[in-house]
Amino acid sequence: xxxxxxxxxxxxxxxxxxxxxxxxxxxxxxxxxxxxxxxxxxxxxxxxxxxxxxxxxxxxxxxxxxxxxxxxxxxxxxxxxxxxxxxxxxxxxxxxxxxxxxxxxxxxxxxxxxxxxxxxxxxxxxxxxxxxxxxxxxxxxxxxxxxxxxxxxxxxxxxxxxxxxxxxxxxxxxxxxxxxxxxxxxxxxxxxxxxxxxxxxxxxxxxxxxxxxxxxxxxxxxxxxxxxxxxxxxxxxxxxxxxxxxxxxxxxxxxxxxxxxxxxxxxxxxxxxxxxxxxxxxxxxxxxxxxxxxxxxxxxxxxxxxxxxxxxxxxxxxxxxxxxxxxxxxxxxxxxxxxxxxxxxxxxxxxxxxxxxxxxxxxxxxxxxxxxxxxxxxxxxxxxxxxxxxxxxxxxxxxxxxxxxxxxxxxxxxxxxxxxxxxxxxxxxxxxxxxxxxxxxxxxxxxxxxxxxxxxxxxxxxxxxxxxxxxxxxxxxxxxxxxxxxxxxxxxxxxxxxxxxxxxxxxxxxxxxxxxxxxxxxxxxxxxxxxxxxxxxxxxxxxxxxxxxxxxxxxxxxxxxxxxxxxxxxxxxxxxxxxxxxxxxxxxxxxxxxxxxxxxxxxxxxxxxxxxxxxxxxxxxxxxxxxxxxxxxxxxxxxxx
Length: 641
Ligand SMILES: Nc1ncnc2c1ncn2[C@@H]1O[C@H](COP(=O)(O)OP(=O)(O)OP(=O)(O)O)[C@@H](O)[C@H]1O
Fold this sequence. Notes:
Elements: E1 5-12, H1 15-24, E2 28-33, H2 43-47, H3 53-63, H4 70-81, H5 102-108, H6 139-142, H7 155-160, H8 173-193, H9 197-208, H10 232-247, H11 249-266, H12 271-284, H13 320-337, H14 343-355, E3 357-362, E4 365-371, E5 383-388, E6 394-398, E7 402-404, H15 424-436, E8 441-444, E9 447-451, H16 462-468, H17 480-494, E10 498-504, H18 510-525, H19 534-548, E11 549-550, E12 558-559, E13 562-569, E14 575-583, H20 588-591, H21 601-609, H22 612-617
Parallel strand pairs: 2-13
Antiparallel strand pairs: 1-9, 1-10, 2-10, 3-4, 3-7, 4-5, 5-6, 8-9, 11-12, 13-14
The structure holds adenosine-5'-triphosphate.
The site of adenosine-5'-triphosphate has 20 residues, from helix 18 and strand 12.
GO biological process, one term: neuron projection morphogenesis
Organism: Knipowitschia caucasica (Caucasian dwarf goby)
GO molecular function, one term: cytoskeletal motor activity
């Protein structure tokens, strides 16, 4: 299962990559600002461009000054007492946090939007439904204007049926049953002719409606997910989803994916889905047996100079951590060595080129083949004869379906840009070979591709960090720490802003890698007066995650907002302040959450933290026990110093 990829770039900051990234969707960005800059003007480059109209509008609205009103003034005065989330005025700047930071921290990490929110005029049809009218009331008062006249054709009454269910008392039973039948038939026909998303969306609600639950007074054009009475099962299911998260992230995702794959086998796939499945097949396929065996894990001898490997850590103990270091070192050394070829290798490569190896691209991935030479005119134009390597079968295929293969020495190439033949199959083959050897990071020119390992490898530790400290990019194996190191080094040598933008689909590891970047920078650079630390960052992020993360079909702890982290450095190269700006929070999830996905984590945390009297008071006493999330009431408030 797996392998969403993640593209990272650690290049000197310019507006264009960020703007481009933002146009593509949700991104994470990390800015490093040298000492001469007190504020970071680039955040606007992240916030303003967006192709998502809804998001763009909400940002714009939120940033506009609000009209003066008592409420707004109160909000403004509140905002004044809270440090703004300007990049230059970081959360961690200045004094250490007060001993009881929890309420303040929550406010301080808020997106700056509320203080200037413009009241939105809600169109009449989008307003919350009125409470159901009592049947003793005068029907004239509650009747919808659409039903001023008695309706006999059924369809019209269906459109408004839920608005005036009680009004129908004036009809006789016979009329009612006939009407209902007609409504059913019309509804069925309409659904068949015009199957819409909305219908699909409403279907589960109808089936899930518990017996005895009255229809809610909703217009057909808009409905709230929670307007149907939520059963204990629904709530417990949501709780379970969150509970399962820390235990087995990928088992969950895998189960969902497996179910999806089954479904998709029946339905035609979109090009994106098809590409995703092809990717999964490639990464799940066993490694090609003809390829050279992985280089034995052993630390190379430390060498100095520009081309030498920057080896600060030697492996003595043989722990898992050391193995990882040795693996990185040996793969880098092997890549280095591959530039100097022995006579044997040169001869083997000559053979390779002489036999003209190609990749045959097919729907399951690509297969190695050799072009069979034929006489001119023996094959129709545009066709080529090949012999597949794995079973020796001869095929006539389209020229467009083959791509040139690189010699095996390029299989674990550290930089995709250095491949002799740069095509999709060769790139995938290189990534696949590296992934099979536990090497999830690969350079792609100035960028770095990271493949989600779906496990917790020991490639992130202080020891590994130390290995990268002070090194140059060419002396280091590809790693997320080398991205951070390169940005830090550039910052110190050029005194220019640096940015690292993380791109990738949901679940590809943007958040995880941001954590590693921050951790690396703060532990390597240090922090002035310990104002900033990895623990403080983690504490802030815990709160952000509670309010902005939820379980989705792609990721059981998906961030439903974008954020920009800025680190400011002083003359000594230490972190002097940090800030985080959040944007594009998927607020709609509160009122309209997608089927089989949860709402924001904080709701489940609150439920699990409520004591029994509060639960009884709120009629929540039938919910699962407090320990559902492993958060006990007395320990649920954690103060991070
Ligand atoms: N390099 C990695 N090493 C270990 N685990 C990883 C790595 N990258 C991702 N993961 C795991 O994959 C899961 C998803 O990662 P993460 O939440 O960072 O993805 P994301 O891109 O931020 O997703 P979203 O956009 O939905 O928020 C996490 O459980 C994380 O532990």
